[in-house]
Amino acid sequence: MTLSLDRGVELPYAHPAVASARALAGVLAPRQHWSERDLARLTRRFATRAAEQLYLAARFDARDRWHLRLALTEEVEVWLLTWTRGQGTGSHDHGGASGAYTVLHGALTETWTDRRGRRKRTIRAAGSSTSYGPDRVHTVQNCGTLEAISVHAYSPPRPTAPGLT
């Protein structure tokens, strides 16, 4: 499926949940480089402009984290992830990609080591966003009492998403 944006741009893939969201028109227009700031802005736009569609598309699985690819271009990919209480990732990087995420519902706890070797831990509540460069190694977990929903973007995109960490 392709998504035709009102600026004449066609995406290679857009999930039906967001393909008709007119409020997203133009947000994935081609660009030379997606900076960390651009990726954070992108996830916030998906989370605010298509919130209703994302809530309707979200599914929860107590055994495995659920994920849905929302959009894919040559430069960037966007994912919807859900997290039941206690679900999280192992320590991981993103294969050379920069990334960002916005918490749509609930809260997520991110843990990483900064460049000085200090361990950092931040709770990201609904509405908050973060971005990071290709060198970030982190864990993300739902330590809260509510189920969580988040929108993630990566650039460059990965051809597949093994384990979607």
Biggest sheet: strands, sense, closure? 6 strands, antiparallel
- Give the CATH class of the domain at 35-47 and 59-155: Mainly Beta
**Which percent bin holds the helix content?**
10-25%
The CATH homologous superfamily of the domain at 35-47 and 59-155 corresponds to Jelly Rolls
**N- and C-termini, Cα separation:** 25 Å
Global morphology: globular
The strands making up the biggest β-sheet line up spatially as 3-4-5-11-6-9
- What Rg do the Cα atoms give? 15 Å
Number of helices: 3
In total, the number of strands is 11
Strand proportion, as a percent range, falls in 35-45%
Mean pLDDT: 87
Low-confidence segments: 1-9
SSE arrangement, N to C: EEEHHHEEEEEEEE
Alpha-beta content class? alpha+beta
Give the second-level CATH assignment, the architecture of the domain at 35-47 and 59-155: Sandwich
CATH topology group of the domain at 35-47 and 59-155: Jelly Rolls
Structure, explained:
It is a single chain. By secondary structure, the protein is an alpha+beta fold. It has a domain at 35-47 and 59-155: Jelly Rolls (Sandwich). The protein contains 3 helices and 11 strands, in the order E-E-E-H-H-H-E-E-E-E-E-E-E-E. The protein has helices at 16-19, 36-49, 51-57; strands at 3-4, 10-11, 13-14, 66-72, 77-83, 98-105, 107-113, 119-125, 129-132, 138-141, 148-155. It has a 6-stranded antiparallel sheet. The chain has a 3-stranded antiparallel sheet with strand order 8-7-10, with no helix packed on it. A two-stranded antiparallel sheet has the order 1-2. The longest helix is centred in the first third of the chain and has 14 residues, at 36-49. It starts with a strand and ends in a 10-residue tail after the last strand.
